[in-house]
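Quiz preparation item.
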């Protein structure tokens, strides 16, 4: 969620920073040649954006995306997120010692398209994926607790246990539903 907010903030700042450019010439005959037109396009949400992850299904399973990320960078997972930002993307955080690597895997093709490395990894944040439920079951529990469109889901550690954090939107209302990744029980809803 933080990455998406940063991308939106950067895009907004870039649009606001576009200078208005006009022609500045003493010779009126050269005015047309010196005029620069600047236009900014605002994109409307696509049909896929309005549908959400309830309908959009990745062609690549999250476990396969994790295997790809681990092959690319090594380490153990601290979070696995599926979101849709122009395309379905798995954002996988891996840690090895103090090195944390963020790998973005296209959920349609299975290819890695972005990799970032930080040196603030924490092995205590590693998530144990043995015996966890599949995302569909966590999503079903989350939507039952708070109906709406699924924006993203994340498998992560929260207060010592592995959970699914499911972000749901219903109109202008956004709700985070936390589901126990082992039992499928809703732990908390936060809007």
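Solution:
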């Amino acid at each position: 969620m933080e990455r998406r907010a940063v991308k939106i903030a950067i895009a907004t700042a870039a649009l606001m920073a576009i200078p208005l450019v006009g022609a500045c010439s003493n010779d009126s005959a050269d005015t047309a040649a010196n005029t620069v037109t600047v236009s900014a396009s605002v994109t409307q949400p696509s049909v896929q954006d309005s549908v959400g992850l309830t309908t959009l299904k990745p062609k690549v399973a999250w476990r396969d995306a994790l295997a790809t990320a681990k092959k690319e960078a090594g380490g153990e997972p601290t979070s696995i997120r599926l979101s849709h930002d122009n395309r379905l993307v798995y954002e996988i955080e891996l840690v090895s010692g103090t090195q944390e690597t963020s790998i973005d895997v296209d959920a349609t093709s299975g290819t890695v398209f972005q990799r970032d490395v930080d040196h603030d990894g924490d092995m205590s944040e590693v998530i144990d994926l043995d015996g966890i439920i599949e995302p569909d079951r966590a999503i079903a529990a989350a939507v039952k607790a708070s109906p709406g469109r699924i924006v993203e889901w994340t498998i992560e550690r929260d207060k010592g246990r592995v959970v699914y954090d499911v972000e749901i939107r219903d109109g202008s209302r956004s709700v985070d539903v936390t589901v126990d990744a082992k039992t499928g029980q809703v732990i908390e809803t936060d809007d």
